[in-house]
Design brief:
Rossmann fold; 6-stranded mixed β-sheet; 11 helices; globular; VWA domain-containing protein
């Protein structure tokens, strides 16, 4: 045996002896005190965080910045809804032990607005809580979500220069196709996506039609479907109407859609049809029926109870 081989065997022997002497309890303490490192793509996290997964909130908010924001009441309700979401989130934070904090809330648009001011506000509203986060951030989160959204809408309206055709727009369909997994789903968390929208969906660069399926739903298109009788649901099934699925296997996602508001006064079933479009879409993308809720626009005090119940269930 040569000199290099002897040194190599001695190193292995020394390493084996040192490993045998380690205390399993010490290993556990080290593991639990190790920062929550994630491997990109697999989103791995420590066992004690995984065990607490359903109590780790990952709330994503998708704002519909289409021409609906020209309606003062829509903005007023959206701002109040966002305040209720921050209240539900911070109430949850207060119930957790410091060492188990692994929660976050964030806000998205699709596509991203060109306005740097809007994107800066969105960045300010991206907040994470870990065991190292100061308690002061709890109240700061509530304040930010109460004050910043109104500024955000004002900047969006300024971008439009008074012309609704220039509003940033909202491509909800493509958000589900391209972004929802990367932005809103994490293996370490209970993943909740909240969408603030009137329920209509349209973006000029994502306009697709396959038979009775579309990537859009507008008031004019809904009027042409001739679903004005009580058998509207049967007619939808017969004609295979609905959104084109944009993704699949989204079983680890919960979705709350709030603000549905029919702009079609000529159809008494318009709200029901819009809700069915969304419900069918979620089911076909693999979201379990109990994991989504679609609510009409109601006064903020009534919606707050809905939001709290959904977050705290």
């Amino acid at each position: 045996m040569n000199f290099k081989s002897s040194i190599y065997l001695l190193a292995i022997f020394t390493l084996a002896l040192s490993s045998c002497g380690e205390d399993p309890k010490e290993e556990k303490i080290i593991a639990e005190s190790t920062p929550n490192l994630r491997t990109e793509g697999t989103m791995e996290c420590p066992a004690y965080i995984i065990k607490n997964k359903q109590n780790n909130l990952n709330i994503s908010i998708l704002l519909d910045l289409s021409d609906r924001i020209e309606q003062p009441k829509s903005i007023e309700k959206d701002v109040a809804y966002l305040g209720s979401l921050s209240k539900a989130f911070t109430n949850h934070i207060k119930t957790k032990k410091l060492v188990l904090l692994e929660d976050r809330i964030q806000l998205f648009f699709n596509p991203e607005p060109s306005s740097s001011a809007i994107n800066e506000i969105a960045e300010n509203l991206k907040i994470s809580f870990t065991k190292n986060t100061p308690k002061e951030l709890i109240e700061e989160t509530k304040t930010l979500y109460q004050n910043e959204p109104l500024k955000l809408y004002e900047f969006a309206k300024t971008d439009a220069n008074g012309n609704k055709e220039n509003y940033p727009g909202s491509d909800i369909w493509r958000f589900f196709k391209d972004n929802v997994r990367d932005y809103s789903i994490d293996n370490c968390h209970r993943n909740i996506l909240v969408i603030l929208t009137d329920g209509y969906m349209y973006y000029d660069k994502t306009e697709m039609k396959e038979g009775g399926r579309t990537s859009y739903l507008t008031p004019n298109y809904l009027s042409k479907l001739n679903l004005k009788k009580s058998n509207w649901k049967e007619e939808m099934q017969k004609q295979d109407l609905g959104f084109i699925p944009a993704a699949k296997d989204l079983q680890d996602l919960e979705v709350l859609v709030i603000g549905i508001n029919s702009l079609n006064d000529n159809n008494p079933y318009a709200l029901d049809i819009i809700q069915e479009y969304w419900s069918q879409w979620f089911r076909e993308m693999g979201i379990p029926e109990g994991n989504y809720k679609i609510k009409n626009a109601v006064i903020p005090s009534n919606m707050e109870g809905v939001i709290l119940d959904f977050i705290n269930k």
